[in-house]
Amino acid sequence: MTIEKIIFGAGCFWGVEATFRGVPGVCNVTCGYAGGHTSYPTYRDVCSDQTGHAEVVLVEYDPSLISLERLLDAFWNCHNPTTFNRQGPDIGSQYRSVIFFYSPQQEVAAKLSRDALQQSGHWRDPIVTEILPATKFYPAEEEHQRYFEKHGLH
User: Fold this and answer.
1) What would you report as the CA-atom Rg of the chain, rounded to the nearest whole angstrom?
2) Which of 5, 61, 85, 153 is surrounded by the most beta carbons within 10 Å?
3) For residues 144 and 154, what is the distance between their CA atoms, to the nearest angstrom?
4) Cα(24)–Cα(21) distance, rounded to whole angstroms?
5) CB within 8 A of 69, min separation 6: which ones?
């Protein structure tokens, strides 16, 4: 079995994690931080909006069970990709919409899906999602893993 990974940022990582945990073919989801300029950031550091990191989830999946396109559909459908540095009431660069890819194939698929969604007219405003090469991923503290499950919210 081959496992692949991709990183998604779509606002607060608790809800994004819960979304991807429910997708068949996803083997594991880890809340964390990526895209910043500091090493080993904490939740408090990232929430200061000074580290450059986004709240993200590392999604590990089996491509024989789920296509990257299906994962991208789940990503686009779990947030508003047209709001810059915010999702709902959460404001700051840590809540930005971002895809960190690990391969050229993932980059192409992400850009094609973004462009198709933009052209579909589903969103009136431009999609502002960043599509970037994967950077160092830092797992979030244990209390942020499976947050909704631990608190009876999902």
Assistant:
1) 15
2) 61
3) 14
4) 8
5) 109, 113
Output the six-digit token pair for 83.
Answer: 């709001």
Is residue 151 scored above 90 in pLDDT?
A: no
Distance in Å from the first CA to the final CA of the chain: 29
Give long-range contacts, CB 8 A cutoff, 24+ apart: 118-125: 123/80, 123/81, 123/82, 124/82, 125/82
For residue 36, CA distances in Å to 47, 102, 138, 149 come to: 12, 17, 10, 28
The dihedral formed by the CA atoms of 135, 15, 26 and 116, expressed in degrees to the nearest 10: -70
Secondary structure of residue 105 in the 3-state scheme: helix
User: What positions carry a catalytic annotation?
Assistant: 12
11 phi/psi in degrees, rounded to 5? 95, -155
The mean of the pLDDT values for the chain is 94
Q: Which fold has domain 4-150?
A: Peptide Methionine Sulfoxide Reductase; Chain A (3.30.1060)
Quote the pLDDT of residue 154: 60
Distance CA(33)–CA(93), nearest Å, equals 12
Task: State the Cα angle at 128 between 79 and 46, rounded to 5°.
Answer: 70
Q: Report the 10 Å Cβ neighbour count for 8.
A: 29
